[in-house]
Design a protein that fits this description.
- This protein is α/β, with parallel strands linked by helices.
- The chain has one domain: TIM Barrel.
- Helix content is 35%, strand content 12%.
- Strands 1-2-3-4-5-6-7-8 form an eight-stranded parallel sheet, sandwiched between helices.
- α3 links the parallel β3 and β4.
- It is globular and about 45 Å long.
- The N and C termini lie far apart (40 Å).
- Bound molecules: (1E,3Z)-4-hydroxybuta-1,3-diene-1,2,4-tricarboxylic acid.
- (1E,3Z)-4-hydroxybuta-1,3-diene-1,2,4-tricarboxylic acid binds next to loops.
Length: 295
């Protein structure tokens, strides 16, 4: 029994997702997903903003096989803080079929960075979403970049539309590594792709060829619910405009979703709606994530 109690109102992941109608091409990468705990082995961080249900590496790999993916990129979530042991354990259990994105602090030890690199960590995540992480001064982020850039790691940034304006200069200063934007910068999908907020994200991608984008989380962004029609135009726009700099993932086990728990089969069926040709699907699911994580 875990001593951690999942938050009231937090939903466990879908117990029996449907088989997607879409068959991912052989070698497809689910490039955004998480492992949680188990909490009695890998405790959740004292500073966490939520306590999830346990979602283990074995459960993730079973889902990977069921929905037809070949590989995972496992992203450290805030509930584990900068204790990356659950992530490293999952990478080590993956037989080379998972890579990772960690949470690093300026004082993370060289030994920990070495262990993570050997296990397959390829990036560090900066989380600017206020409900998930407390803001830090610029020096904090700069010190981390100094540590990870020499290792060949990249950055993953998670932010909300207001951050594009407030942190514009900072985001444009991130030139030392590739930078991958989580969940399309979380647009308000009632506003339209021509709205200045979404176009600001497009401008960031246009100006900075080292920027990439995850066309992920229709379930999180949709106001309409499954099958997430209202999110399609945003993801399709990015896939077509930046076809060599987009990646995709399930976001399993979908932390912090209060309205519904997505069926991962339905989430996977989002892919052919945003990448309509086999050529685009191959870039989104194989060529692009392989370039970032397996080269
Ligand atoms: C996601 C989204 C969320 C959570 C986290 O690190 C996290 O805790 O990223 C969220 O609540 O929007 O990408 O998993």
């Amino acid at each position: 029994m875990t001593k951690f109690q999942m938050d009231a109102g937090w939903r466990p992941f879908h117990p029996n997702p449907s088989k997607p109608k879409f068959r991912p091409p052989p070698g497809a990468v689910d490039a955004h997903c998480h492992v949680f705990g188990p909490g009695d082995v890998f405790p959740y961080a004292p500073e966490r903003k939520y306590t999830p249900c346990d979602a283990t590496a074995e459960q993730l790999f079973a889902l990977r096989d069921f929905i037809g993916f070949d590989k995972n990129v496992i992203v450290q979530a805030t509930c584990h803080g900068s204790d990356n042991r659950a992530l490293v354990d999952a990478l080590n259990k993956s037989n080379g079929r998972a890579k990772g994105v960690a949470t690093v602090r300026p004082d993370t030890s060289d030994a920990d960075l070495k262990e993570m690199t050997e296990a397959g960590v390829k990036g560090a995540r900066f989380n600017f979403v206020r409900r998930l992480a407390d803001p830090k001064p610029k020096d904090y982020y700069d010190a981390i970049i100094d540590r990870i850039a020499p290792l060949g790691w990249h950055l993953v940034i998670y932010f909300e539309p207001a951050d594009l304006y407030e942190r514009w200069d900072f985001f444009n200063s991130l030139t030392r590594t590739p930078v991958i934007i989580d969940h399309m910068g979380t647009p308000d999908v009632t506003k339209g792709v021509d709205h200045p907020d979404f176009q600001k994200l497009v401008e960031l991608m246009d100006k900075n060829p080292n920027y990439w984008c995850k066309t992920t989380c229709p379930d999180r962004l949709s106001k309409q619910g499954p099958p997430y029609d209202d999110v399609v135009p945003y993801a399709k726009y990015l896939v077509e405009r930046f076809s060599d700099r987009v990646i995709w993932g399930t976001d399993w086990p979908h932390p912090n979703l209060k309205t519904h728990m997505p069926d991962d089969g339905v989430v996977t069926d989002f892919v052919p709606r945003i990448a309509e040709t086999e050529a685009l699907q191959k870039k989104l699911l194989i060529d692009n994530p392989m370039r970032l994580y397996w080269s």
